């Protein structure tokens, strides 16, 4: 597993984001290092309150860059003034905080331990449906920890999901190393049946399917798309990591799909669903990737236009076959990552911009920064509602919002039935709530 070191500066919001990053890394099987010198990657969560703070952040970034193999910078300064790190010749990947885990995980499958049980976190229920993986990717180290796929029965997983709903879950996240191969170890492909059965549980809730490799879901993609179309409880969202647009590179990665299979999965969901979100991953700078391979990946991204994209610079994991390959230079990987990240922001920003003025039914899934909440629409796109307390909006609520703006990777919305005075938290008599 990779080791990480994380440092956080600034407000409680930054500290909360760092906790989320760390939780995702631990869930992925990674562990904290004793210090930055011992870490495979250092993560700097920055603040940018005043000029002195900016200087301190730049100095600390320079120090960490010299101490560790790889540096990721996130937080307020990274998003507002990310160019300052490049101007200071700091070799770092600048990312939004929720992109950090997927970047550090290096395109590997999440790690689910053998004793993984459902977890209720707020109104979100985490349901691991199986452990292990059918793949043998040349760059992935998590396969050594997880082994081959081991799938409990449909009935067992449905009962676990029912227990989560009865305990208060409003969103069930179906997880696993590769959810698409659920049931393969027992000779049957059971994912469509499982999702159908979970959606049939009494209650008001939503279901999000976790990562499914294109090779795993290709043989069931038509049946799976029909299940999505038939069940409004399912978010119309698929996370299918393609990793490269080049068949040659996919072969060297030992991925169990080629680009055409990925395209066929996408086309099937395009045909069955009015609107859905495609999430995918790309690894840039794999040792055998040349300029032409990189352009094929860029072309594929521009063609399918996923609404959520994780871009990872390849890094070697000890003990994997890819670790023995002659790697590309850091400058090449950085340039390719920068080019793809710029295209990613264009594609994702375009998707969220197109939502402005639309009305969407959403579920409030968790608290956001300040007095805001994070909501998910039917395609699992994130919509932020601000001034939640004044508006009487709470985690677990289902409501209708009008999208009023966007910030590249998420949208802003307001409850569709509120009046201007509602939005300001003031009643018709000019009083604020609680002012008796």
Automatic annotation (TrEMBL):
- State the EC number(s): 2.8.4.5
Q: Is Transcription regulation among this UniProt entry's keywords?
A: no
**What chemistry does it catalyse, as a reaction equation?**
N(6)-L-threonylcarbamoyladenosine(37) in tRNA + (sulfur carrier)-SH + AH2 + 2 S-adenosyl-L-methionine = 2-methylsulfanyl-N(6)-L-threonylcarbamoyladenosine(37) in tRNA + (sulfur carrier)-H + 5'-deoxyadenosine + L-methionine + A + S-adenosyl-L-homocysteine + 2 H(+)
Q: How is the cofactor bound?
A: Binds 1 or 2 [4Fe-4S] cluster. One cluster is coordinated with 3 cysteines and an exchangeable S-adenosyl-L-methionine.
CDD domains of this UniProt entry? Answer: Radical_SAM
Q: Which domain of life is it from?
A: Archaea
List residues of the Radical SAM core domain. Answer: 119-354
Occurrences of domain MTTase N-terminal (ranges): 2-109
Signal peptide residues are none
Region entry Disordered, spans: 413-436
**Does the keyword field hold Transferase?**
yes
The coenzyme or cofactor needed here is: [4Fe-4S] cluster
- Keywords from the UniProt entry: 4Fe-4S, Iron, Iron-sulfur, Metal-binding, S-adenosyl-L-methionine, Transferase, tRNA processing
| Domain (TRAM) ranges | 353-417
What Gene Ontology molecular function terms does this protein carry?
4 iron, 4 sulfur cluster binding; metal ion binding; tRNA (N(6)-L-threonylcarbamoyladenosine(37)-C(2))-methylthiotransferase activity
One Pfam entry for this protein is UPF0004
PROSITE patterns assigned = MTTASE_N, MTTASE_RADICAL, RADICAL_SAM, TRAM
InterPro entries from the entry?
Elp3/MiaA/NifB-like_rSAM (IPR006638), Methylthiotransferase (IPR005839), Methylthiotransferase_CS (IPR020612), Methylthiotransferase_N (IPR013848), Methylthiotransferase_N_sf (IPR038135), MiaB-like_arc_euk (IPR006466), rSAM (IPR007197), rSAM_horseshoe (IPR023404)
Q: NCBIfam families of this UniProt entry?
A: MiaB-like-B (TIGR01578), MiaB/RimO family radical SAM methylthiotransferase (TIGR00089)
Function description: Catalyzes the methylthiolation of N6-threonylcarbamoyladenosine (t(6)A), leading to the formation of 2-methylthio-N6-threonylcarbamoyladenosine (ms(2)t(6)A) at position 37 in tRNAs that read codons beginning with adenine.
Similarity field: Belongs to the methylthiotransferase family. CDKAL1 subfamily.
Q: What is this protein called?
A: tRNA-t(6)A37 methylthiotransferase
């Amino acid at each position: 597993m990779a080791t990480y070191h994380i440092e956080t500066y600034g407000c409680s919001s930054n500290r909360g984001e760092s906790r989320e990053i760390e939780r995702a890394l631990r869930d992925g099987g990674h562990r904290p290092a004793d210090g930055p010198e011992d870490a495979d990657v250092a993560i700097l969560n920055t603040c940018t309150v005043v000029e002195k703070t900016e200087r301190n952040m730049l100095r600390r970034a320079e120090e960490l860059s010299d101490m560790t193999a790889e540096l990721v910078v996130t937080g307020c300064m990274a998003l507002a003034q990310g160019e300052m790190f490049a101007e200071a010749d700091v070799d770092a990947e600048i990312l939004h905080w929720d992109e950090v885990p997927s970047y550090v995980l290096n395109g590997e499958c999440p790690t689910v331990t053998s004793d993984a049980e459902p977890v209720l976190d707020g109104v979100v229920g985490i349901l691991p449906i199986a452990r292990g993986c059918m793949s043998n990717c040349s760059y992935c180290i998590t396969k050594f920890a997880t082994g081959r796929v081991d799938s409990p029965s449909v009935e067992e997983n449905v009962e676990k999901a029912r227990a989560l709903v009865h305990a208060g879950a409003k969103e069930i996240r179906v997880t696993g190393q590769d959810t698409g191969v659920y049931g393969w170890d027992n000779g049957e492909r059971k994912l469509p049946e499982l999702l159908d059965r979970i959606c049939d549980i009494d209650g008001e809730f939503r279901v999000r399917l976790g990562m499914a490799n294109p090779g795993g879901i290709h043989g069931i993609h038509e049946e799976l798309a029909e299940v999505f179309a038939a069940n409004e409880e399912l978010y119309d969202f698929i996370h299918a990591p393609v990793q490269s647009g080049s068949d040659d590179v996919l072969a060297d990665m030992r991925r169990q799909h080629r680009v055409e299979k990925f395209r066929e999965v996408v086309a099937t969901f395009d045909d069955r669903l009015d609107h859905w979100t495609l999430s995918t991953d790309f690894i840039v700078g794999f040792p055998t990737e040349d300029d032409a391979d990189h352009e094929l990946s860029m072309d594929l991204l521009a063609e399918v236009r996923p609404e959520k994209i994780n871009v990872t610079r390849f890094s070697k994991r000890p003990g994997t076959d890819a670790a023995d390959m002659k790697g590309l230079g850091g400058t090449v990987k950085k340039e390719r990552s920068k080019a793809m990240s710029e295209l990613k922001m264009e594609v994702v920003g375009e998707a969220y911009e197109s939502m402005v003025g639309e009305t969407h039914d959403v579920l409030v899934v968790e608290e956001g920064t300040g007095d805001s909440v994070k909501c998910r629409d039917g395609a699992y796109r994130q919509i932020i509602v601000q001034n939640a307390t004044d508006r009487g909006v709470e985690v677990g609520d289902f409501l209708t919002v009008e999208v009023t703006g966007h910030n590249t990777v998420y949208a802003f919305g307001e409850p569709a039935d509120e009046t201007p005075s509602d939005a300001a938290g003031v009643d018709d008599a000019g009083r604020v709530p609680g002012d008796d």
